[in-house]
Amino acid sequence: MLLNLIGSITLFVIDGPTSFMNTPVRAEGVSPAEFLATASLWDKVFNYSWMPLNLHRLVGNVTFGGFIAGLIAAYMFMGSKKQEDRAYYDWMGFVGNMIGVGALLFLPFMGYLLSYELCDYDASICPYMMADQLSMFFEMQGAMVGLIFLASNYYIWLSMKRIEGVERVRMTVLAPIVMVLLPIVMTKVLTDYPVPDATSLAFLLPLLLAPAILGRFIPLTVSSSTVIKVGFLMVVVGTAIWMTPHGFVPTGAKLVAELELPSDWNFLALMPAKNSAAFTLIFVTVVNYVIYNRAVSQGTIVWGKIDFASQFVLVFLAFSAIWTMGLMGAVRSLLRKYFHAYNLLPDFTAESFTPTLSYSAWWITGITVTFFAVVSFAILVTLRPSDSKGHAHEGSPVPAGAK
Amino acid sequence: MGNVIKKSVVGIVIGGILFGATNALGFPLVFQMLFFGYAMLGTVVFIILDLPPLKPFGGIKAAGALIGFYVILSAAYVAGGAVWPQFDPEDEKGKIDKILKPKREHYESGKVDVLLQRAKALDEKTKELTARLQALGVAQAPADQKAGGGGAPTATTAAAGGDVAKLGAEQWELQECYNCHKLNGEGGKKRGPELDNIGNLLTADEIALKILDPKSYKAEGFEKEYEKGKMPDKYKDLMEPSDVQALAVWLAGYKNASVNTPKPIKMK
Predict the structure, then answer these.
(1) Do B74 and A369 touch (CB under 8 A)?
(2) Calpha distance A186→A201 (Å, rounded)
(3) Residues of A with Cβ-Cβ distance to B169 under 8 angstroms
(4) What is the ipTM, given to two decimal places?
(5) Of A365, A373, A376, A358, nearest in space to A322 by CA
(6) pLDDT in tens, B55-82
(7) Does domain B142-266 have CATH number 1.10.760?
């Protein structure tokens, strides 16, 4: 607890100067330099994007921690020679993934909050980020998020396969129906009642709660396998909506009709559709976890017997999540444009320009690979599976009720 | 294997339908291909779902598989970053150089503080002289000084030289005003008013004032944007007074009455 508290406080302190560089403290009608001279240290720390960045990074770090635990478990599972160890690391991988995915579900909202505050600070940041120089970074983000959600749901799919009696698990037919309807209804509702208009909830909450409430009175059910397969279809649809751009150009200035969405379909590139896509991914994942829990309570988990491919899924999730964090970190940093501290301290170096996505991808990959090399080495030297040297067993390493 | 072939055929058929449907709906080719790609992604996902379980392996084989997996992931993400349209930094470098040039000169001379002090002293002197002239019954100081401060006359000089249109248009591009405002039928995302008729509604000095202090005028129909402070309050720091004046004079030349530029309301 204390370690977590110290870690969080350290993160918040680091975020002070980081967020200051993006959104230096300011006051209406006063130049930043003048206001800065009179601002207290707290004024400087508690700038526009400090708390949104704190929340974003806090949730991001939980995701990171969960997926890294999953990565360690995958390495250990691969290196295990005994069934007992495999059972333990299978469980550890599952829990790590659950923590990672659980926090991941909140990340789009936290990212939205941060970008909302950045745009509120300076409206010119928004087009730079979404429609101009950095727009293709968000295309890549859409692809990465889609892949991460596909992988995390695939892990649930593989986890389900090792549960004995899973074939008996069923769910109300409303669940897959709502999955399919969600992106369509939500896009329409959020277009008519944009965020933060709470009217949208009057339409969306009944829809989202329908499987849980109405499902009790409607006897029609479908198998867990069908629900998950419909879920995969909708994750692909959600990813498709997320990734569909307004135009296939790096900046709005280069937009021509041959590369632009037809005007009747432009809604696919707007925020209501993107929010709907993100929420569809989240909703599907939550439903899949509900099914998984139902399968666990109705069947028996055979820990250690998970498909070996699942270990590569855990590695994939850790690598992809960290790569995506690098990508979004690059976006946040590049939002300062040609300033060290936005609108305050110009960057006169030769590197003061927006790099290409391709160039950034090389750097992000290099950093991610370096990080993984260090972590892999650390796991290898400190945690490598070895025969226990006379350890007295303190109890079962797997949860009660498991085989 | 049969399952894989069956799903591949289904995927290609669905991809073909999406391709044809988007073609019929008038989507450009690149979007038709994108939708076909989505169908292929779905096909791969559904093929993977029913793959037979992978048998466990360990030792060197597992280490090799992991390294290979990392190489594939790295290559895929580097390639993934390269397939999207790339922004050309050269497009921006010239712009940045122009924007930062005056600031660079100030910094390089190492006299920022001195310059600030000088500007303040000049400002004081101007005020003092204006007061004396007013006391003597002489006309007020030039309007451009009111709008742009001590250095504003530069633009007027440029205007006199006939370069104002070029300078104003250049500032429109450099400051990326087109991101929010429509002009000549181009740019804008309804974040700010269309400006083709602004010359009939505001004078150059009033436009300059709006640029320097976005809260000075509110456009009718843009109350929400005004309240939220959507127009950045940064140009007084980013732009040279002469540039503000050039942009304002250039915009004041737009008097296309057929365009419904919203009426500005004086707020300050």
Answers:
(1) yes
(2) 10
(3) none
(4) 0.89
(5) A365
(6) 999 889 999 999 999 999 999 999 999 9
(7) yes
